[in-house]
Amino acid sequence: xxxxxxxxxTYSYPAAMRVEALAAxxxxxxxxxxxxxxxxxxxxxxRDSPFNIYPAKGRYMWRDMERICASMGLPLVRxxxxxxxxxLTARIALVLGDDERxxxxxxVYRAExxxxxxxxxxxxxxxxxxxxxxxxxxxxxxxxxxxxxxxLKLQSARAIEIGLPGAPCLVTVDGEVFWGxxxxxxxxxxxxxx
Length: 194
What we know:
The structure is a single chain. The protein is of the alpha+beta class. The protein has one domain: Glutaredoxin. The protein contains ten helices and four strands. It has a four-stranded mixed beta sheet with strand order 2-1-3-4, sandwiched between helices. A hairpin with a 5-residue loop joins strand 3 and strand 4. The protein starts with a strand and ends with a helix. The model has no long low-confidence stretch (mean pLDDT 95). It catalyses: 2-hydroxychromene-2-carboxylate = (3E)-4-(2-hydroxyphenyl)-2-oxobut-3-enoate. The active site is at 9 (nucleophile). This is 2-hydroxychromene-2-carboxylate isomerase. GO terms for molecular function: 2-hydroxychromene-2-carboxylate isomerase activity; glutathione peroxidase activity; glutathione transferase activity. Belongs to the GST superfamily. NadH family.
């Protein structure tokens, strides 16, 4: 099944930290699919995160994230600005191999939501890549390649085509969509039953 996630998405943070262990416990293979929520928001007439547009929703989300992260032993620092600009990070994740993408993504989430670091900055991303044994300069160049930029556009268009309502989402091979960190178990169990 596919794990669709957006680096600027708060709920994608705890989901990214637990989806692989949950999937492995069930024997379900997961492919990580980075995408951009911006086009989905624009299609709904939003120019910002709904958590900023609707203050009550935003207050609830941050308190909910505090509870979730505390229960998982994850640090939580509200990034400034929120949401973070995630275009470069998504391009990097997409250019990485399937085996490299999960570790990179988890480290980015830890830097962003665990330490409050800016994920649009190569100064944040290069040490993460180097720490994974990757050549940061090479990866940053490949990420900005026009073909990779087009891949991300197509990936984000695919998210719209599937009908993803937000991030994170699990999408099963039979097309069932499970939206949210709190739906990971449901999605994986559905896939296991199929």
